[in-house]
């Protein structure tokens, strides 16, 4: 920690100039967190140079201040067909160019930072059958189904469509990956994307979207 110069000698003017210079150099900088720094007083903000984020003392420990890392928008902008009925598929999204901390490889979205994430999912389901068609969607973490997480929806008419959605909070460790799994009981079901200006001057409709935001360490 860089300390202010102490008063020394009879020349207060020199000390004042040194003090002003010191304050100008440190006024917008956080002090680096050092081994042994105490968190026994709430509200002390330091910079953890090892993990590359600021921390604040709360209830006797230093807790991370969450930065922008860990947000992403993902989309499938064309129709998605089910090749076979009653078969699980993992959706492969396209990532927005402004995503941070959520690299994607095929169907796998990897979490670069440990933390709690708000995950918002939507899909526009479509049926080309007059019979009832059922759809299911659920998240998988590291290839394992998440218990109690399935969205189930059905369509009952030809050319019928509707949007299904859900938002959940997930905890992920750095290196974990998320996938969105889906299945349909008929190949007459699909995820539908519509081109723009079908009714008015509205923009195009994606088949499915996924938004992920890290909000807590």
Note down, in words, how this protein is organized.
With 217 residues, the protein is mainly beta. The protein contains 1 helix and 17 strands. It has one helix spanning 12-26, and strands spanning 45-48, 53-58, 61-64, 71-76, 80-81, 89-90, 94-95, 104-105, 108-110, 115-127, 133-141, 144-145, 151-155, 160-172, 177-184, 189-191, 208-216. Strands 4, 5, 7, 10, 14, 16 and 17 form a 7-stranded antiparallel beta sheet that branches. A hairpin with a 2-residue loop joins β11 (133-141) and β12. It is elongated and about 95 Å long. The two termini are 26 Å apart. The model has no long low-confidence stretch (mean pLDDT 90).
List keywords for this structure.
seven-stranded antiparallel sheet, 217 residues, elongated, 1 helix
How far apart, in Å, are the first and last alpha carbons?
A: 26 Å
Helix segment tally: 1
What fraction of residues sit in β-strands?
35-45%
Shape by Cα distribution: elongated
The chain-level structural class is mainly beta
Query: What string gives the helices and strands in order?
Result: HEEEEEEEEEEEEEEEEE
Main beta-sheet annotation: 7 strands, antiparallel
Uncertain stretches of 5 or more adjacent residues: none
Helix percentage: under 10%
Radius of gyration from CA coordinates: 26 Å
Q: Averaged pLDDT, please? A: 90
Instruction: Tell me how many strands there are.
Output: 17
């Amino acid at each position: 920690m860089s300390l202010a110069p102490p008063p020394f000698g009879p020349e207060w003017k020199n000390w004042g100039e040194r003090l002003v210079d010191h304050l100008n150099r440190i006024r917008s900088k956080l002090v680096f967190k050092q081994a042994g720094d105490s968190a026994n007083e709430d509200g002390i903000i330091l910079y953890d140079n090892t993990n590359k984020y600021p921390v604040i003392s709360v209830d006797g420990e230093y807790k991370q201040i969450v930065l922008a890392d860990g947000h992403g928008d993902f989309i499938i902008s064309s129709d998605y067909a089910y090749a076979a009925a009653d078969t699980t598929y993992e959706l492969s999204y396209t990532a927005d160019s402004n995503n941070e901390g959520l690299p994607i490889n095929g169907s796998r979205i990897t979490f670069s930072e440990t933390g709690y994430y708000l995950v918002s999912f939507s899909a526009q389901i479509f049926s080309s059958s007059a019979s009832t068609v059922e759809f299911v969607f659920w998240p998988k973490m590291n290839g394992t189904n998440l218990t109690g997480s399935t969205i189930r929806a059905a369509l009952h008419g030809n050319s019928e469509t509707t949007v299904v959605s859900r938002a959940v909070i997930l905890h992920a460790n750095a290196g974990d990956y998320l996938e969105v799994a889906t299945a349909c009981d008929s190949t007459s079901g699909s995820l539908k994307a519509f081109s723009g200006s079908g009714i008015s001057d509205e923009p195009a409709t994606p088949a499915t979207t996924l938004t992920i935001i890290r909000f807590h360490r």
